[in-house]
């Protein structure tokens, strides 16, 4: 493994364990086994660019996998099923979380916390692509059933649940060593239930 890859893995792990603000570039270099304490700064410049590089290193595979699942859903008409779309959204993250040594889901949860608990700020780090496509499809389905403001709020809440739920799956996968299909199904159930529950009386009357 080259120096850059070692630094990325060390950064992902330390950010996941200690938070974005709790780790310095020097600590990352040391954790990666680099004698030069400025190695992370040399390769990435600053912490923000290092975070972007972690996304880049993980998202290509996740995005490709989600695109495959979305194409399959469209081929059999499952893209009109909110539960199936939630599975398409969550499964690639869960599969990544189950890979040996992965701290990506917990890193993402820490970054979400660092970003002020709002999903909208994450795209600036590179969280785009297939996830946006699935979210847009879910929004179109919900628009026919819920007031616009309610639908938007639920999608935001579902984003939070996806991040924290996948981090939990990753924590569990460290011991299980594989995707826990039952837990993934529970997470998908929770996402779909949150999105598709009938609007309350106040929202309906408003």
Folded structure, characterized:
The protein has helices at 3-18, 25-31, 39-44, 47-75, 82-97, 104-114, 130-143, 148-176, 181-196, 201-205. With 206 residues, it is mainly alpha-helical. The chain starts with a helix and ends with a helix.
Task: List strands and helices in order, with pairings.
Blueprint: H1 3-18, H2 25-31, H3 39-44, H4 47-75, H5 82-97, H6 104-114, H7 130-143, H8 148-176, H9 181-196, H10 201-205
Give the overall shape, derived from the CA principal axes: elongated
**SS field, number of helical segments:** 10
Structural class: mainly alpha
Radius of gyration: 18 Å
Please outline the major beta sheet.
none
The total tally of domains equals 2
What percent of residues are in strands?
under 5%
Mean pLDDT across residues: 88
- The poorly predicted ranges are none
The share of residues in helices is: over 70%
The number of strands is 0
User: Distance between the terminal alpha carbons, to the nearest Å?
Assistant: 58 Å
Instruction: List the helices and strands in order.
Output: HHHHHHHHHH
């Amino acid at each position: 493994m080259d120096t850059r890859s070692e630094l990325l893995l060390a950064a992902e792990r330390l950010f996941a364990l200690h938070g974005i603000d709790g780790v310095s570039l020097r600590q990352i270099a040391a954790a990666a086994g680099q004698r030069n304490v400025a190695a992370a700064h040399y390769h990435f410049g600053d912490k923000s660019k290092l975070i972007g590089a972690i996304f880049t290193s993980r998202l290509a595979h996740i995005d490709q996998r989600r695109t495959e699942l979305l194409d399959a859903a469209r081929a059999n008409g499952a893209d009109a099923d909110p539960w199936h779309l939630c599975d398409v959204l969550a499964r690639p993250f869960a599969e990544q979380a189950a890979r040996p040594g992965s701290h990506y889901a917990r890193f993402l949860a820490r970054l979400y916390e660092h970003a002020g608990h709002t999903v909208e700020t994450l795209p600036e780090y590179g969280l785009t692509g297939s996830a946006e496509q699935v979210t847009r499809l879910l929004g179109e389905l919900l628009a026919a059933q819920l007031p616009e403001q309610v639908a938007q709020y639920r999608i935001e809440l579902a984003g939070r649940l996806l991040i924290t739920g996948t981090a939990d799956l990753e924590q569990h996968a460290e011991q299980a060593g594989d995707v826990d299909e039952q837990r993934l199904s529970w997470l998908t159930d929770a996402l779909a239930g949150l999105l598709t529950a009938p609007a309350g009386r106040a929202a309906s009357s408003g």
